Structure formats: C-alpha cells, structure tokens
Sequence to fold (343 residues):
Amino acid sequence: MAEPQTPIFDRLPRIVEVTVADAADLDARLRDSDQPFIVRGLVSDWPLVAAGQRSPADARAYLQSRQRDRPFMVSVGDAASDGRLFYDDAMAMNFRTMRARLPDIFAKIDAFAQQADAPPVYLASIDMHDYFDGLHEANHVDLGDRTPLASIWMGTRTRIAAHNDTPDNLACVAVGQRRFTLFPRDQFRNLYLGPIDNTPAGRAVSMVDFHAPDFDRYPRFADALDHAMVADLDAGDALYIPALWWHHVEGLAAFNVLVNYWWRETPRWLGQPQDALNHALLAIRDLPADQKAHWRALFDHYVFDADADVVAHIPEAARSVLAPMTPEGASRMRAYLLRQLSQ
Fold:
C-alpha cells in the first residue's frame, strides 16, 4: 500500500512571529513591514475570546447578545464539499446564499454539529458596526490613526480558495483555529486564477484544491509552493497580511470566528485598481497588437513611469486630471467615466 502523501501545509515554512510591546510598537511594525507576521496572543484579552474558550456555545451566546435585530447574509455549502466554498463542475457556486436572523443561523450550526455530513455554514465579512451593538468597542485592536473596516467572519469548518485583497489586513482569531497559506503578490501566474467577474466573493481565486493539488493540470503550482508560507493560529492570535498578498484560509474547528481589519494607506476617494483592469479587458485586450503596444506605452507614460516631465509643458492651472489627484478631481473623473460608460 502506498504511503499517504504529506499534506502540502506540513512541508511549508512558517510565517515569522513577532512580539509587540504596545499599540505604538504594533503601529510601527505595520508601517515598516512588507512581509506577513504573526503576533501570538494579541487579542487574548477580548471577552469574545474568553467566551469561546469556555465553549463554542458560549461564544455564540455572547455574539447573539450583542447582535442587532436584522437579517445576516449567510452561505450554506454542499455537504460533500469538505467545507470548500468554491465552484461546482459547471463553474456556478457550490453554495447558496440567503438572509436569516442570527439566532436561526446559530440554531442550524448547533443542529449540524450532531451530523457527520453537515454542510458548511459561513457568514463572511459582516460589518461589526452595522450588525452589532458594542461588540467592536469591547473587542478591538488599537490601530492608531488608521480608520479600518472592521469585519467579523463566523462559521463551521470551511476552506476558502487563495485570493488577494487590495487593502492591508490584520486578521485576528477570536474563536477556534485558522490556517492561512500565504503567497507573495507576484505568484498570481502560478496560482491559476479563475474568472475575475464570476467569483465566490468578489476576488479572483486560485483554481487549485490545496487539499489535493493536481500538479498535472496545474504544474506551476509547484513553483508557487516554493514561495508559500503557513500560519496556524489559535484563538487570541493575529496575522498581518500585506496588501495584495494571496491567502488561502481554513477554519479548522467546529465553530470559528475571525475579526479582521482592512485599511489602505492611500486615500479612500481614489479609484479601485480592479475597475481599471476590468475596463482594460473591455477596451484594450482585444485590439490589434500594434495598437496594444501603443496603449502600453501610454500607460507607462501617464501611470507607471509618470514623472514631472509628463506635464512640465502644460500650464499648472490647466493640467486637470494629470495634476496630483484630489478628492474634487476624483469626483470629476468618476462623473466623466460614468458618462462615457453609459453611452
């Protein structure tokens, strides 16, 4: 009988762990680091963490006591998916999404805990301020002058395909255990990304099943693994994921809760780069090769290699969108693009 294959996670290097003395020390590390790092026990004093350490039921009761009376968005997967929220064979989602009250969702999770073949249940990126009263105030990380989006993720055992996010991310495990497998930004070619407009949660995801990678179908994934790192996190631990790093996420316990903070170092009024990529696919990708080469040169000139010489010949007051972007300029540009796209 053949020996079972060692899971890929067991062969990968671990993400570096650091200690932080206080909020100022954390702030400095977040500003200075372009690599991921773990802070063990960063949120171990949270009441939510304490509730989860007593029992998953206590954690759910704590959350339910602070929830607002409004429907939550919840995804319920296929019982045969091994917790993987992904595509089916027809490239539709293998889970259904619905709205339900949190007590009803938690009751289902309680009922499913008694079933060996229970489907995965996942509440993704729930805004803590909009859906709970006092939860953020009692369970949060001091991030200095940042104004992050604070989200909570709750569910049973799940596997979320490798994807990346535009903002920086501090992910804090409050209940259960999580495993993150991270890849640097430049590994997108080796991760075999799926569609960018038909996605499980808004971002293109790796088509590789990390639990059973098919190296014949995805041979460059072996190269991606040469650059991968793993973080196994317990309740109270936190992981910093720099912007645009790819991450595969697993909830390993019967009930898991994660709180994460997203923030951008750039102003909120700037546009989303993904929108520019989508528009380029619409407007540039299928042009003749000589025209694409011209537009590549223009993008380099105006965007990627832009310097003072680009606008030096234009009177300063007349540079319009070629001047440094301002909130007013961004607003005018959005209005202009909306008019153009609606034609």
